[in-house]
Known about the structure:
Number of strands of chain B: 32
Helix content of chain B: 40-55%
Number of helices of chain A: 13
Radius of gyration of chain A: 21 Å
Shape of chain A: globular
Shape of chain B: elongated
CATH topology of the largest domain in chain A: Rossmann fold
Strand content of chain A: 15-25%
Structural class of chain B: alpha+beta
Number of domains of chain A: 3
Largest interface: A-B, 67 and 44 residues
Radius of gyration of chain B: 49 Å
Oligomer: heterodimer
Strand order of the largest sheet of chain B: 2-3-4-6-5
Helix content of chain A: 25-40%
Order of helices and strands of chain A: EEEEEEEEHHEHHEHEHEHEEHEEEHHHHH
Amino acid sequence: MGRYSTFKKGGVHPADKKELAKNSAIEVLPLPSELIVSMSQHLGAPAQCLKKKGDTVEKGEKIGEASSFISADVHSPVSGVVSEVRKVRLASGAVADAVVIKPNEIQPEMFQQKYNWMEQEKDELLSLVKAMGIVGMGGATFPTNVKLNIPTGKSVDALVINGVECEPYLTADYRVMMERAEGVLEGIMVLNKILSPKKIIIGIESNKMDAVKHLEDLIKSKNYNINVMPLKMKYPQGDEKQLLKATINREVPSGKLPIDIGAVVCNLGTAYAIYEAAVFHKPLIERVITVSGEAITTPKNILAPIGTKASDLISYCGGYNTQEIGELVSGGPMMGFAFSDEDTPMIKGSSGLLALLPVKLDTGVCVSCGKCVQHCPMGLMPNKMFRNIKFKNYQVAMDLGLMDCKECGCCAYICPAHLPLVQGFKLGKKLGRKK
Amino acid sequence: MKTVSVSPHIHTNNSIQKSMLLVSAALLPAAAWGVYSFGLRALLVLLVSIISCVLTEFLLGLINKEKTISDGSALVTGLLIGMNMPSTVPFYVPIIASVFAIAVVKWTFGGLGCNWMNPALAGRVFVFFSFTTLMSTFALPHALETNYVLPGREVATIEAPADSVSAATLTTAESNGKGGMVIIANKFIQVDFPEGFTQSDISSWADAVIAKYPTIFNGYSYFFNSNGILEFEAPSKINDLYHVGLISIIRTELANYIDNIAVDSVSAATKVSGTKFRADGFDGSITIANRFITVTYPDKFDQEAMAAWADSVIAKYPELFEGATHFAAKGGGYEFALPNKLNDNLHEMYSSVLKAELTNLIGGGSEEEVDAVSSATISSEGDNGFGGKISITNQYITIDYPEGMGESELKEFTANLIDSYPELFEGATHFAGRGYYEIELYDALPQNLHDTYRSFIKQQLNSFVNGSVDATSSATKTTDLSFEQSGYEATSSITDKYITITYPTQILSNDMINEFVATLEEDYPIFFEGVSSIILNDYVKLELYDTLGNDYHEIVNSIIEKELSKLIKKNAVDAVSSATKQTFASSGYGGSIAIANKYITVDYNTSEISQSEMSAWADNIIDNNPALFKGVTYFFNEKNIEFVFPAKLNDAYHDGFVAFFQGELGSLMKKEVVLVDAVSSATKITGVEYKAGDFSGATSIANKYITVDYPTGSITTDQMAAWADSVIAKYPDILGGAKHFAGATYYEFELPEKINDNLHDLINSVLSSEISAFIVENSSVDTVSSATMLSANKTALVGGAKGNMESVLSSVNVPVTQYAADFSAKTGISPYTIDAFLGNQGGCIGEVSALLLIVGGIFLISAGVITWHIPVVYIGSFAILSFIFGGIPAGNGLFHGEILTPIFTGGLMLGAFFMATDWVTTPTTTLGQVIFAIGCGFFTFLFRYFGSLPEGTSLAIILMNIVTPTIDRYIKPKKFGFVKAAKEKKR
């Protein structure tokens, strides 16, 4: 093993806990009895709901229309009947319109036919991506067609495929890499066609060296011009800014996008979704979710339709193994959202569902140890920002770079006093924006 | 029960409490080493500190309604305070430090996280400046308590140099005081004897010496070596410390023997007295020692002159000098040798007499020179009584014409003068000059006659002018003259051809008068040629060859007056006044000594001393000084004893007698005291000064007491008592049976009997060697116990020491362990570095072992509690500055500073790893921490090398604690993407 590169500044090293679900192959979830498909599964404006109670829907039918430039279409994951259109509380706490679908007992076999995407133009592929409702599947759920639509005057130096999966517990991307590498690579080639980058890099952390090997072998056999780059483990390497720093050693300036430095980052899961969209014209209606955590009886990687309720996934994994459950988390433990309602539906960005054991944390006072400062990947001073937010000096906090904070949680993770730093920053951003 | 919280949902298992426990754990090895090094007391200090900190925290938590005790910060503060205390410190010091740290430094600003100074350091600095001495007094670490090594010393472990009996042979060679040598080597003492002594003489002397000092010369034998030189042989090697003393004894005894003095060494201490005098610009001295009197004299006198003078003195003062011989002293001066040792009490009498005689000799000599008749041209002039002059040059007498007189008158006068007074003018011619008249005598006129001639001519001229000329009178006239010189009266009466002269017979002997008359005849042949004299009871009668003309009477009288005065003046010192001189002086014992004429009265305390005692005393004086007291009787008055001498006492003796009686009275009075003490002789007091390190003191011996100065600050009376026991045991021959006790600034031995004066030197030299060795030994231990390497080095540098740290430390006796010395010998690393690294050094409980502190620090870094930046940069910057500038105070110059020892000593390691890394009081950014650490390194360097205190870690860190908020304000981390953005803006 050589020395793998990584981003320089800050970062933490939480235990990755991936061993819980790492070796369980992707299983297809049996059809749930009810799906709750949110209209707000992406960053940006919620989709316009196209269905009402009692309507029948086909699998892959568009049920939500992108309402603005930054928005995404939503498709029905199953064939069935709309039993209800109502507000639903998502794991993030946001409330959105959702179409509740009762699936038919028998689902049609769909999306088997292959299309030759190679013959399609760049723009056709781009609109296909939009039409298939593809969003970033790493968690941020940024509409992919927006990201891939390179503004005039900019060119793409590097396409970086994010296979880092730096959040502990999560193994969905890993399993996709291991089991569906060909699709992933083909998806990347689709992106290649859309973006025509000078180089393509797949960044993978060094705890997934088997995936690295697997992909490299495959790339060799297919003679793709793709560079697989193992990276030194460090959270939050999966953030696109950190990933770009680690892979192509460029820093995205504050307030700018990766394209401003000639780079596009795309999640590995998204690449697979693009593959499915381009080859099978299959919308994004299902995804691989890692169901893990110490409180889950059998952690698994499950291919589940979008809108699956947390309870269905948990029961498929054998339920809880203890009465003492701490938190249910949607996404990774560092940036995911805790929720309490087990009926909460999965969305396009739900990479994981974790059931964690309770942890007793004593919150102390700041002792100026500086660990948050030293570990902040963005070079901020969380202690000062937090103090200023505490004293309602939001502007000072913003001046200190509050808006650059990605809420990656490194500071709160490392803080010996267990101060709720991220909470403070979320609040500070909201209140600061209002002002 | 599910909970919902904001991300992140996992945390490090880090917590403040856990970190504090880790810090405590990391400190434990060094603290444990401190307890091992300094003993149980160190543990108690640690416990007291911890308990006071935790208790203070608890109470303040109660008051402030915050439960902060469990965060463990008070525990760490307490442990650090304890580790920053010397183990010897009284318990109230850590208690004060703890309360200050927790209550003032921490809670005043709001408790944990809000303090801006490290509480433990602030507590330490607070008590350091409040109890500086207590905080700077360190115990010797366990490893150095015994079996330590002083680098740079030849002897491996400290031994009293006094044990040198067994060391290499010391050879001591000294003059024996009599032109030879005394050589002591191993067990032999070789004594040169002057020539002229047979072996049997020498043997008897050697026997006598051995018999006289049975303890010192116990078991000694003697023999004559192949060169015929006497050698004593001791039964075993002679202690080196005895050499000087033995030589002193041998010199004394040799002198006693050769000078043939009754060997009464106990009481016959030789008094040496010196008197200074000044005469005619010459500063001289009279020294009396034993039976020898040495006087110095000006260069203008040769030995012959001095011999003549000495003869005259001996003849003049037979009472004092009978049987004395005299010779030129070897070392310059002239020396009288009396037949016997001179009574000390008579020193003053001799010196006063000799002083008078010498002053007279030197002063009188110069007068004679003026009087010498010279053949060289001499001239003098005086007035003629008529507005003109009479000048005499050689044989020419010129007379200015008086007013109204011409050549003819003067010619008549002169012719008449020459005719009338052939005694004065026989063979003279006369002639007129321009404005004067001149008489040419047959021969040049001696200068001493100028005045005589001039006044005679003046008188005759007056008679001639006034017409009352009575040139030759046949009628008998008597002319009397009386005059006084030096308090003595003399008369001269001239009738016909007889001159009767009375003179002070007490000072002028018949011989002198005879000589005086001879002088007159020789110097003034005109008047005195053919004179005869007869000395009667108290006058001398001169008979001239012919009747003296009446006109000559006054001139002759004036000659007699002049010459006799000179004689009286010369001998005035010998004067015995008829009744004038009375001396009245204090006896020194509450009364007076009065001398008048032939009586000496001596007051004494009649209530304390009986008449019979006084009689015995007086008899003793008379018997012992037969020459002086020949024919003296005495009787008692109411309050005094009165001595009656057969004749009036020479005044010159008065002062001497006063001193003599003062001395004798002193002996009498002292004897009274001495009788109580049951010791029978006058006390000799001898002292020898010694130096031991910085301390200088003296050993002194008086009677049977020996006092020994010692530094009372650093050596206790118990230590001195033990020392006294040891020296008494070690030197039974000189100190056997001595008792000892402590005095104010000295320690005192009391021997059973008065100490033989001749043993003083021996005892003093032995005891001064022993005590100085003892002081050096004890104070060297003291140096290390009260000083860290840093403070010892600093003190030495302030005291002017130069050189590298190792040499400076070894010069002030800072010890190292045997292991360090051995390891140093193998590797060349300074043993101090090794000991400091391992923790075998003086200092605060927790700061001594650099090794264990580094281990603890590495543990903390690996546990993620601290980062490496502050310790490494702190120590690194200090090391670099030390290397560049650290050599300056020690005089080694730039780039010659030491690094390792300074890093391992003092509080640097403890400070760098455990205090400067305190979360609360250090900057939060890495760059800020680096700046902070450089500042710490800089100030530590500055305080240590150029400040007044040896240590600067605490102050440096506190100073940088104060700067920390400023650092945090200006030093911010580089934001992600920040520089790039700025660059783009520029474009």
